[in-house]
Amino acid sequence: MPMKTIVLLIGTNEAGKTKTLKKFFGVSLIMRLRPLQLLNKVINGTTVFGVSLSSPQEQSKFCNVNEVETRLTKRIQKCEDTSGGKDYAIIIPFGVYQKSRKSKLLNEKCILEPMEWLKGLGFKVVALYLRKESARLLDDKSSLVRKIAKFEILSNKEYERQAKEIEALLVKLLK
């Protein structure tokens, strides 16, 4: 069975997930993408996809796991249809945020449960933390993400550098 990899680019609001991925895929930072627009790039002979560069958590009601999984399913299906059964990787931005300005409740369940669900579907899941140093409740958010992310990239609006770091990581992962 071909190995399919999902790279979760996890970061807070305004961490630069979308802009970093636009640089990674060679898309203008000011270009607006269509819903479920498919982007791709080949690394080590494996196609790396991006589908809709927004976070499924940020498009859903606060911590609605079912909505997040439905959005993930649509993205995965687009990659499955395009790949023709071959190995591929997909990068999906994952937002970590709090319920409201007053609430310290994080959307932890909406990150952890979809990750386990994806693993249960047979995907290799790799979490990458795009760490913004000035986020609200940074210690709580970093504590959550560092439990699951094997890799970390400092986000400081150097989108080209951040994209190159993601590519270097994928070169190693997709050998």
List the helices and strands and how they pair.
Layout: E1 4-11, H1 17-25, E2 38-43, E3 46-51, H2 65-83, E4 88-95, H3 109-120, E5 124-132, H4 138-148, E6 151-155, H5 159-173
Parallel strand pairs: 1-4, 1-5, 3-4, 5-6
Antiparallel strand pairs: 2-3
Helix pairs in contact: 1-5
Name a few traits of the molecule.
alpha/beta, 6 strands, 38% helix, 5 helices, 175 residues, single chain, Rossmann fold, 6-stranded mixed β-sheet
Question: What's the gyration radius in Å?
Answer: 15 Å
The unreliable regions are none
Helix share of residues?
25-40%
Tell me how many strands there are.
Answer: 6
The CATH architecture designation is: 3-Layer(aba) Sandwich
Q: Average pLDDT value?
A: 92
Number of domains: 1
Number of helices: 5
Residue share in β-strands: 15-25%
- The main sheet orders its strands as 2-3-4-1-5-6
Q: Which CATH class applies here?
A: Alpha Beta
Distance between the termini: 16 Å
Order of helices and strands: EHEEHEHEHEH
Q: Which fold name fills CATH's third level, the topology?
A: Rossmann fold
Shape: globular
Sheet/helix structural class: alpha/beta
Largest sheet: 6 strands, mixed
Describe this structure in words.
- The protein is an alpha/beta fold and 175 residues long.
- It has one domain: Rossmann fold, CATH 3.40.50.
- The protein is 38% helix and 24% strand.
- The protein has helices at 17-25, 65-83, 109-120, 138-148, 159-173, and strands at residues 4-11, 38-43, 46-51, 88-95, 124-132, 151-155.
- Helix 4 (138-148) links the parallel strand 5 (124-132) and strand 6 (151-155).
- Helix 1 packs across helix 5.
- It starts with a strand and ends with a helix.
- The mean pLDDT is 92.
